[in-house]
Amino acid sequence: MSRTHVGKPSPNRLKSLIGNNFGASSAQLLVSPGPGLDSAVLELKDGSVMAIAEDPIFPAPGLPLDLMGWFTVHIGASDVAVTGIDPQFMTYTLLLPPTCPEEDAQTIIESISSAAAELGICIAGGHTGWYDAVSIPTVGGITVWGFADNGSWISPGGARDGDVLLMTKGPAIEAAALLSVIYKDRISGTITEDALQSCLGRVNEITVVEDALSAFSAGGVHAMHDATEGGVLGGVYEMAEAAGMGVNIDLDSVDVPNDIMEFAEALKFDPWYAISEGTLLAAVEPQSVSAIKRAWDKLGIKSFELGYFDSTMEHSMFCRNGKTSKLIEPETDPFWNLFFKGLEQ
After folding, report:
1. pTM of the predicted model over 0.90
2. Would you list the DSSP string of 3-40?
3. How far apart are CA 118 and CA 116, in angstroms?
4. Strands 246-250, 317-320: parallel, antiparallel or unpaired by DSSP?
5. Tens-digit pLDDT profile for the chain (345 aa)?
6. CA distances (Å), 60 to each of 66, 80, 186, 332, 339, in order?
């Protein structure tokens, strides 16, 4: 069977695919499903709210199974944290091939528990099983949720006119981290050893839990989004669409980290469109920018100002290499072709 698409669909394709197939309606659903909306938000009967998110997780070849367990928790928890709500509970489904030894399953299970405990998350249930239809250990889904008072949360679609768009860490964090593991033997000598080791070390940055919760605590944040598939530019597009307004960003004002730039040039992919789980995008009121950047500085999280939201703009725009272009919805993330090509070789 030919491969027609890899990864998540573009926003418009997703809308066409899903349509209005959301089951019964509910007045309790404050943030409903949609592109760029990392978590649903529900209003509970006592007036408090609940943020809930769902994600699949699969292992990256060359990475230890305990790191897969860490990814599982942090990727799920990140989607709740961008609402400003602490992730508090989770369930997950662990699907294993019949050839997977029980000790490997135990490694994944124990690492998930350890990562959850570090974030204060209680594992409330789930499912584990070995199946012929499964070829590699896969978390078919992790569901994470948390509670907060009504008014003590934000939506990824909540950007306001004049908000400054901030970015943590840089683009292509996940792409550089995972692809460097797969290509490290083939790319050695093509990029500097320092750059390679730096990319390999970025596996520990594939989370925005700390980024998001510290920014929300500092105050003045109206919307946050984790730049996953489609990268930073894809994430910016989704935030603007969800907010119903344009955004103007200047990539020339941001220095892509040297290790990521070297790696992206060597593998010939655009770091701004590559998957970047671990990069937080935040729409912040101008007077709060300094306080949020100081909070990140204390945690050792680098940050950058990308641009601003503007309700008068007909289309979102970005400047790159001195040229201004319309920001369009992302196509297939370049990560996937490189990922599968790397596995084949």
Report:
1. yes
2. ----SSPPHHHHHHHHTT---S--TTEEE-S-TT--SE
3. 5
4. parallel
5. 345 567 777 778 888 888 889 999 999 999 988 877 889 999 999 999 999 999 999 888 888 999 999 999 999 999 999 999 999 999 999 999 999 999 999 999 999 999 999 999 999 999 999 999 999 999 999 999 999 999 999 998 999 999 999 999 999 999 999 999 999 888 888 999 999 999 999 999 999 999 999 999 999 999 999 999 999 999 999 999 999 999 999 999 998 999 999 999 999 999 999 999 999 999 999 999 999 999 999 999 999 999 999 999 989 999 999 999 999 988 889 999 999 888 876
6. 11, 23, 17, 19, 9
- State the total domains in the chain: 2
DSSP letters spanning 228-269:
-TTHHHHHHHHHHHHHTSEEEEEGGGS---HHHHHHHHHHT-
Strand partners, 174: none
Which amino acid belongs to residue 233? L
Clarify whether residues 306 and 254 are in a common domain. Answer: yes
CA dihedral 331, 166, 223, 291 (to 10 degrees): 170
Does residue 5 form part of some domain?
Answer: no
- 92 and 177 share a domain? no
List phi, psi (to 5°) of 313.
Answer: -80, 135
CB 153 within 8 A of CB 51: yes
Domain annotation covers residue 78:
yes
Q: In what order do the strands lie in the sheet with 221-226?
A: 221-226, 280-284, 164-168, 303-310, 246-250, 317-320, 323-326
Query: Domain range for residue 305?
Result: 164-344
Dihedral of the alpha carbons of 3, 9, 14, 17, in degrees to the nearest 10: 10
